[in-house]
């Protein structure tokens, strides 16, 4: 998978969808990649996350809304992406093995 390079503006547009788990895998990848390398956007994200979660907490009495802080959210997204990539590679490997198997049978 080729990594997308996002500008700061583009990344900040995706902060809310990220918090809401609405990014596609490739967007998630680009988002996390930018977060790793840009302290400005990371700070922006922290502020948004705290604000949004604070608001949601006030709106509902659902304690679980606050179970993660912004840092944990980033880490769990990275973990998710990592597992997704492993599965993706595993699928390709299976496919290749299947093809090889079919070719050998011919
Ligand atoms: Zn940035």
Verbal overview:
With 106 residues, the chain is mostly helical. Helices cover 76% and strands 0% of the residues. The protein is built from five helices and no strands. The chain has helices at 8-13, 15-19, 25-37, 39-59, 70-105. Helix 3 (25-37) packs across helix 5 (70-105). It is elongated and about 65 Å long. The model has no long low-confidence stretch (mean pLDDT 88). The chain binds zinc ion. Zinc ion binds at residues 8, 11, 34, 38, 40-41.
Quick structural gist:
The chain is mostly helical and 106 residues long.
What's the helix and strand layout?
Elements: H1 8-13, H2 15-19, H3 25-37, H4 39-59, H5 70-105
Helix pairs in contact: 3-5
Bound molecules: zinc ion.
Describe the structure using short key phrases.
single chain, 106 residues, mainly alpha, 5 helices, 76% helix, elongated, binds zinc ion
């Amino acid at each position: 998978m080729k990594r997308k390079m996002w500008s700061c503006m583009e990344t900040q547009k995706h902060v809310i969808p990220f918090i809401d788990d609405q990014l596609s895998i490739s967007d998630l990848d680009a988002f996390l990649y930018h977060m790793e390398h840009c302290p400005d956007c990371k700070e922006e994200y922290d502020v948004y996350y705290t604000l949004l979660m604070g608001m949601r907490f006030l709106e509902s009495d659902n304690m679980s809304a606050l179970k993660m802080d912004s840092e944990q959210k980033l880490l769990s997204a990275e973990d998710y992406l990592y597992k997704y990539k492993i599965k993706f590679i595993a699928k390709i490997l299976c496919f290749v093995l299947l093809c090889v198997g079919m070719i050998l049978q011919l």
